[in-house]
């Protein structure tokens, strides 16, 4: 696909997804919504990649919704919000939720502005690393709206409810240290993209099937019933015990081989 608003590359089995509207501080227009949805679906099917870095061009993640562009056509809001059933994700929600469904780890590397829809998108990532000067705001209430891009799925996983209410109601802008203290992000680093890459490279030393099984178990069953979590642990462990990459991992750990891992199974 000829990407117009994204810069996509795969290097050493790490996929880089870079929002690329620098003239608009990577604000979200219709084309960017569409392309974020498409690339996430493509990466979900790619069994060769070992991780994803989600970032923005020109030292900004995203300034949020490009309201003027999105509102230029009356049909745009219908395209963004339409869904067949209430519990399904519409386009505006999929650009956050989709990252949760990719089997491999997704790390957001954040610089500069991360506002409104930008915050919603990074909350779909598994881990978020921000530059010390990055700024954040859940700013939908400024426009008389509520957050509706599925970012609350991630926020409820990591943030106390009272802090989530405060940030959503006030639309205040906070710095990286506040975001870290309040668990909106996972780590602060002077070089977030390099830190994200280093972390994914460390994950790549493990069996790709084990990595996917662990993400699936934690993502899907972290807040489920005890019965559900125990069942998922057991089922995934059985799959891993008969998996060729598990045997390779054991031999690598004991120093008996430097064999590369095989392409992972579907998870």
TrEMBL record:
It comes from the Bacteria. It holds the Pfam family ECH_1. This is Crotonase/enoyl-CoA hydratase family protein. Belongs to the enoyl-CoA hydratase/isomerase family. PANTHER family: DELTA(3,5)-DELTA(2,4)-DIENOYL-COA ISOMERASE, MITOCHONDRIAL, ENOYL-COA HYDRATASE. GO terms for molecular function: isomerase activity.
